[in-house]
């Protein structure tokens, strides 16, 4: 199933040059060099800090007036009132000048520190996005590419602790490596990796219930352990599978693999054996039911979103038409599927089924 994984205002016009704020004859100049929204926020924070400094300065001046009546008398020889003396002391003393000079320096330092931190965060985000894009590209490649993706993810565990985007990718990668190990004749290793991938994807869902990819991969990996579970467990897990795929479609309806997976569920239910239907009837009052026509609608939707490029999805469209005894339509879709090169283990298996069904072709 790994193939269906790869298918996934003028009022600011003057701010460009800067803004000047005057307080007590001192000027603090802020030059805007980065994002306007960020600078506005920083200015607001700086003004708040400046107001606090002013209030503190006022308190210090009042205290000095109380301690030095000769300097801060209620009258003066020049006829100044107490308020005049206060304003003179507040507006033009050396103490005030140096105080605001220090404040200006502190504000600029804080601004630069904040800007530097935000730039580091942006760089880190860009680096993370680049890493995930590289891994996603490898997911769509050869078996060697997929093994390389797995190695990259394993080597970056400490970097992405509690990162849901990392966790579901590791689950996907582990699943892909499991399929590779199976093709190499290592069934025990495949089983170990399949269960590990299921645990990782379940952890991803717990991290972020709104992550569509986490739900998708939990459904995929849950379905993959069916080869090692009893019929009753497979039927129980089938309901959980459908629940998470429908949630994934709700969160991300444009992902063709989600629709393909829902089609696979419908097709699987339609193809249940008599024994499996009896087992389902003992577990549920209303056993699951579906039809080839219902499954076909989901596969066709997946092809609409990713037209003519997905070998396995085209095969299942053909299989649905086969079940509906529409052999001419089946032949048309199988021809499209056969024309797509096989680049993965799932493609190889799909090609084998295509050739088997071709004996029922109608030209």
Q: In angstroms, what is the radius of gyration? A: 34 Å
Regarding CATH, which class of the largest domain? Mainly Alpha
Proper CATH architecture of the largest domain = Alpha Horseshoe
- Major pleated sheet: 2 strands, antiparallel
Helical segment count = 14
Order of helices and strands: EEHHHHHHHHHHHHHH
> Taking all residues together, what is the mean pLDDT?
79
Assign an overall shape: elongated
The strand line-up of the biggest sheet is 1-2
What is the fourth-level CATH superfamily of the largest domain?
Tetratricopeptide repeat domain
Short recap of the structure:
This protein has 363 residues and is mainly α. It has helices at residues 36-67, 82-92, 94-139, 143-154, 164-183, 187-207, 212-224, 231-251, 256-270, 274-283, 292-305, 311-323, 327-338, 345-357; strands at residues 19-23, 26-30.
Architecture overview:
By secondary structure, the chain is mostly helical. It folds into 3 domains: 17-120, no CATH class; 145-229, Serine Threonine Protein Phosphatase 5, Tetratricopeptide repeat (Alpha Horseshoe); 254-363, Serine Threonine Protein Phosphatase 5, Tetratricopeptide repeat (Alpha Horseshoe). Helix content is 70%, strand content 3%. The protein is built from 14 helices and 2 strands. The chain has a two-stranded antiparallel ribbon. Helix 5 runs antiparallel to helix 6 (187-207) and helix 7 (212-224) runs antiparallel to helix 8.
């Amino acid at each position: 199933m790994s193939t269906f994984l790869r298918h996934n205002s003028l009022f600011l016009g003057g701010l460009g040059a800067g803004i000047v704020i005057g307080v007590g004859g001192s000027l603090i100049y802020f030059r805007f060099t980065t994002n306007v929204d960020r600078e506005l926020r920083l200015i607001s924070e700086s003004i708040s800090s400046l107001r606090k400094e002013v209030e503190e300065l006022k308190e210090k001046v009042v205290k000095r007036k109380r301690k030095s009546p000769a300097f801060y008398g209620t009258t003066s020889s020049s006829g100044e009132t107490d308020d005049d003396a206060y304003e003179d002391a507040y507006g033009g003393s050396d103490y005030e000048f140096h105080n605001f000079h220090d404040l200006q320096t502190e504000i600029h330092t804080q601004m630069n520190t904040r800007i530097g931190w935000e730039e580091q965060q942006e760089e880190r985000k860009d680096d993370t996005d680049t890493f995930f894009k590289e891994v996603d590209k490898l997911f769509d490649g050869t078996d060697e590419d997929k093994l390389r993706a797995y190695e990259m993810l394993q080597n970056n565990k400490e970097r992405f602790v509690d990162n849901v985007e990392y966790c579901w990718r590791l689950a996907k990668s582990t699943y892909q490596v499991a399929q590779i190990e199976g093709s190499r004749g290592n069934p025990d290793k495949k089983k170990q990796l399949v269960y590990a991938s299921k645990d990782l994807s379940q952890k991803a869902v717990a991290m972020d219930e709104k992550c569509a990819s986490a739900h998708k991969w939990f459904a995929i990996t849950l379905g993959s352990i069916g080869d090692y579970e009893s019929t009753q467990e497979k039927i129980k897990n089938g309901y959980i599978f459908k629940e998470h795929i429908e949630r994934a479609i709700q969160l991300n309806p444009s992902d063709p693999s989600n629709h393909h997976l829902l089609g696979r569920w419908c097709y699987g239910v339609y193809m249940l054996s008599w024994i499996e239907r009896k087992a389902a009837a003992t577990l549920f009052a209303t056993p699951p039911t579906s039809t080839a026509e219902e499954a076909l609608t989901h596969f066709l939707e997946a092809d609409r979103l990713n037209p003519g490029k997905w070998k396995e999805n085209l095969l299942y469209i053909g299989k649905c038409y086969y079940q509906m005894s529409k052999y001419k339509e089946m032949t048309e879709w199988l021809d499209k599927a056969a024309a797509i090169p096989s680049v993965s283990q799932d493609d190889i298996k799909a090609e084998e089924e295509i050739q088997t069904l071709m004996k029922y072709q109608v030209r």
